[in-house]
Amino acid sequence: MGKSSSIEESVLHLKKEGWCLVEDVVPQDRIEALRDEVVAGNQRAIEDYEAWGGLLRHQKGPNGEPGPSVVTYIPSVAAYFGDDRVVGIAQAMLEPHVRISQTEFKSRPPNVHEPHYRAWHSDFPHDLSDGERAGAVRMPFPNVTMGLTTLWILSPFSSDNGGTWIVPRSHLDLRNPRSHLDPRNPPELHDDVPIELSIPGEIQLSGPAGSVVMIDSRIWHSNASNPSPEPRVTILVRYSPWWLSLEFGGRNRAYIPRASYEAMPERVKLLYRHRAEGESDPIRIDHSFKPYL
Fold first, then answer.
1. Selection from 93, 178, 167, 197 nearest residue 139 by Cα
2. What is the pLDDT of residue 135?
3. Pairwise CA distance, residues 8 & 80, whole Å
4. Which of 7, 21, 97, 149 could form an S-S bond across to 242 if both were Cys, CB 3.0 to 4.6 Å?
């Protein structure tokens, strides 16, 4: 996928391969500042959650109550989450009314030499290892895209710094590496797919800083270790259709303080209004987008 790829080409690639790369979403002259914002925001979030007694990983407080969303700490980066191409692809793959269901820090620390590390899994709502079975779709998965995980690349992705591993077309595979971890799946649906080993056909994602990788939530993917001397700085953003319940079980329900929400561009507000303080969430489509449908 190249930077000149249209929404239509990206959608076709996503449907066939389970992923696509959207280049030049973030201007090159903004990348360094945004990367610094993510690093500093991550550190502030760690300190805030530790002082509160909460858990940043799940963006929850000491009693399980929702905490402030990661997006609160990276306002300049979040301004790009309403990009025409990214949201257009999400609308074409999901529904015209899409929401951002999760925002997470996904940077990888430097100097970790584990070339054989794998932890294959699929994402919400196809996460078969979700501790509370929150919205986990039962196997065999229907051939419907129910979510898109996007990785916002602020450090170039490559094998040199731990680009994410994926197995192309595995979103269409009826098997899953973690089928045996969901007790609702009968033994006959348990698959002998290695969770911690290389899988034939796997590839390591690569792309220049300023790009966005979009993957179908069903695709088998894994973090990779980063052997380089610098952190690999990445933000994860999940786009979900309006009909997918984000309230069930232990879902990430991190809230957005009113002041942070008001500072967002209007297009980004549409994606986060369901988590903003003092906002209702009626079905509201941004008709200024012209996605390929």
1. 178
2. 67
3. 20
4. 97
CA angle, 15 then 18 then 24, to 5°: 95
Is 1 within a domain? Answer: no
Residue 141 within any structural domain of the chain: yes
pLDDT at 260: 97
DSSP one-letter string for 54-101:
-BTTTTB-TTS-B-B-GGGG-HHHHTTTT-HHHHHHHHHHS-SSEEEE
Q: Which pLDDT value is given to residue 293?
A: 47
- Which tens digit of pLDDT belongs to each residue from 19-68? 999 999 999 999 999 999 999 999 999 999 999 999 999 999 999 899 99
Q: How many residues does the chain have?
A: 293
Whole-model pTM?
0.93
User: What type of residue sits at position 109?
Assistant: P
How is the chain split among helix, strand and coil, in percent rounded to 5? Answer: 25, 15, 55
Q: Is residue 52 part of a domain?
A: yes
CA distance 235 to 77: 9
State residue 20 phi and psi, 5-degree precision. -155, 160
Instruction: Classify residue 2: in a domain, yes or no.
Output: no
Q: Which residue stretches of the chain have pLDDT < 70?
A: 1-4, 131, 134-135, 249-250, 282-293
CATH number of the domain at 206, please.
2.60.120.620
